[in-house]
Specification:
By secondary structure, this protein is an all-alpha fold. The chain contains 15 helices and four strands.
Amino acid sequence: MEVTAPSKKVVRGWAMYDWANSAYNLVITSTIFPVYYDALTAVKDVNGTVISRQIDFLGWHVESGALYNYVIAAAYLVIAFLSPVLSSIADGRGNKKRFLQFFCYLGALACCLLYFFTRERLVLGLGACIIAAIGYCGSLVFYNAYLPEIAPIELQDKVSARGFAYGYVGSVLLQIVCFALVLIKPFGISDGLAARLSFLLVGLWWLGFAQITFKALPGKNPAAGKNVTLWNNGLRELKKVLSEVRKMPVLKRYLIAFFFYSMGVQTVMLAATLFGRQELGLKATQLIGCILVIQLVAIGGAQMMAWLSGRFGNIKVLSFVVLVWIFICVMAYFIQTAMGYYVVATLVGIVMGGIQALSRSTYSKLMPATNDTASYFSLYDVTEKVAIVLGTFSFGLIQQLTGSMRYSTLALAIFFLIGLVALGTLRKAYPYKD
């Protein structure tokens, strides 16, 4: 059967949004912001040695790392509630692009607002962090929903992987600029100002390159016969999609597996920098340089996983990748040196992009033929976001109770294991073997 090639211009434009917004994921969630936040909240003695990371936040005395995980969990909880309503409206009115733009601008402007984040403005900084996460995650609902519209099933693995590859390249380029700012500190600027300028650059980068996407993607394509109202239609669409998924045993089991391993994947990515900082005492330059290398490794990892899925099938490759993640979590519990951290980080880089790209394209393949693509991807997004809420909250809670992130990593290994078992039930039922 001949496969119709998608429009190269549209695919490139779609992938450029990954280029635009992945700078947020790298600089804000993974590298410079966590390091800046840790430096800002750590209490040091006269010799510069950290003696405490306990801080007061709105009258609450809490470990700074745990607070960070709670803030991230709160952001993802908000978007989990919002996305079903918003995506149903986007499907009904056919204006996915408009909602993509709204959340893009919301997230990018919040990144710019982080320029004003200081210790005296802790509430402002963490509030902007929540808004930026909402903007990032909210835009991905509509970005992902374009995938089945711009590429046939046979090419969705490759197109999905291309998006992640663009994201890694774009984010690395800006990360190098931000890394230079922090390392060189031109014009005698302070460490803090260098970090805050990086946050401002992320917002401007996100805003600027997203315009390429907005120009390339198709406009309105409303679902026929829909009368859209905000809350009623949103809840009705979510209930409808859930009802349909219950009748699709393969898709239902896949979502269960995706839920559990996503609790681990996203939490590892969000907590990796603070783990290196607080558990191993790594310097900012070591952490930023290491995670920069991870992004470069991840470019090849995403492409390699797409190739492997074409040869062995999505479920087999996803199962193997989840097994690697279990190994990563167990290794993280035992590592004591910078070299051990680098080894684990390299493994994360290899499987990070692969599991995200394959998860998205596998779900896209299992979806029924429908005009309600945003509503279906909203369910996918809600599943992931609720997983992140539970994963980050449990990570922070275990750290707060035990005083160590190492025990938290073992909990993540259990989540991955449950996801692996759930994937095992899909191997014979998955309809795409090649």
